[in-house]
Amino acid sequence: MAGQLRIITGIAAVVLVAGAAAGFAVAWRPSIAAIAPPRPDAFGPDIVKRGRDLAAIGNCNTCHTVRGGGNYAGGLSVPTPFGTIFSSNITPDAETGIGHWPEAAFVRAMRSGVSRDGHHLYPTFPYDHFTKVSDTDDRALYAFLMTRQPVHASPPANRLSFPLNYRPMIAGWKLLYFRGGDVDSDATRSAEWNRGAYLVDGLAHCGACHTPRNALGAERVNAQFSGGDVDSWHAYALNDTSHAPVRWNADALHAYLRRGWHPDHGTARGPMADVVGNLSDVADSDVRAIAVYMADISGAPAPDGKRPAPPPATDTPQANAADAAIYAAACATCHESHRPLPYGGVNLALSTAIASPDPRNLVNIVLSGIGAVEGERSPIMPGFAASIDDTQMVALLNYLRVRFGKQPVWGDLDKTVRDARAAQTVLLTASHDQRDAPADSLQRGKP
Predict the structure, then answer these.
(1) Among residues 69, 255, 264, 420, which is most buried (max CB within 10 A)?
(2) What is the CATH number of domain 191-298?
(3) 362 φ, ψ to 5°?
(4) Pick the residue with more confidence: 238 or 299?
């Protein structure tokens, strides 16, 4: 018995030592020697331009720029269930940015989520998608970033609780969830479809927002594009579980991604507004490829392609006269006027926000409205945060849900409205500070 115990103890010790060694091997990464910041003229104009387009597809400026700060200088707060992480400075500043990074260090960060000095990066930087970016495209991105204006700015320290503030813990997360590799090409599909798959699954990292996550913050592998949460917004499902009253097709997606608006689907708002703003200057062939791939994922449109007609006001047996009166005063003037854009409202029977089981997007849009976009004839809408109280807001939203969505009212809508109003108050407060405020999430801009 004693001999068997010694054998078992010995085996356990070997396993523990081997496990510790493997954990150390995974957690430890060597630093890559620093270099003098490259001169901007070391990169040709063609590769820099290509890098600019790729940075727009990757939406890099949105996460790495705060209102009032330098472009790509970082410092934007990214709330997570585990605490707050601040984006890094990716300008070529030698002290606070990536000026000392050779190209090999940049590629390692993109491919493996490891910084130049060897520490693991938190997966709020979506290297689980960026690992699929080609070496050629990484080289162009590096050229673009290294030719930006250097900005001397250090982000605030991350606010994470123990043990997640201990970066080697990220090595364990990577063992569980991170898989490197390229996007597989499908020989049965067109070159355009494969280009779209490469962009969507890689640099554009669409699944990072539109896929639900598990308890440890990783994308759920069996629920890709089934919808996710981004700050106080819901990123709609993009696959065949979509609640869009009219199924997306490639032409509609292309128009929406190009202009931020489509008559069957409404206008881009929330974090999607930034995505569309960036894509507005990207090569049309790339935007079309994204649309072709995503339309295929979303499933085939209905054969008749009919748009639902707005129901008559009398077709609301569950709504009372007071709710209808709020709608008539606040919404009907635009949404039932049949006026052309920008003053004519969308057909609310086509609204995914009303049809969705998650009411947050609709609450946000009614509270804040939609501002005008310079040079575009797209919808505009006033916000009602100051003119409608929470009780009236709930009544109005339930009226929209019943009449136009043909669905039962949302549960716990009172809390959703209170939370949305509080979140917008926090955003307005942050915008006055200018240090920790993103761009206006309801407006679209150019990169």
Answers:
(1) 420
(2) 1.10.760
(3) -65, -45
(4) 238
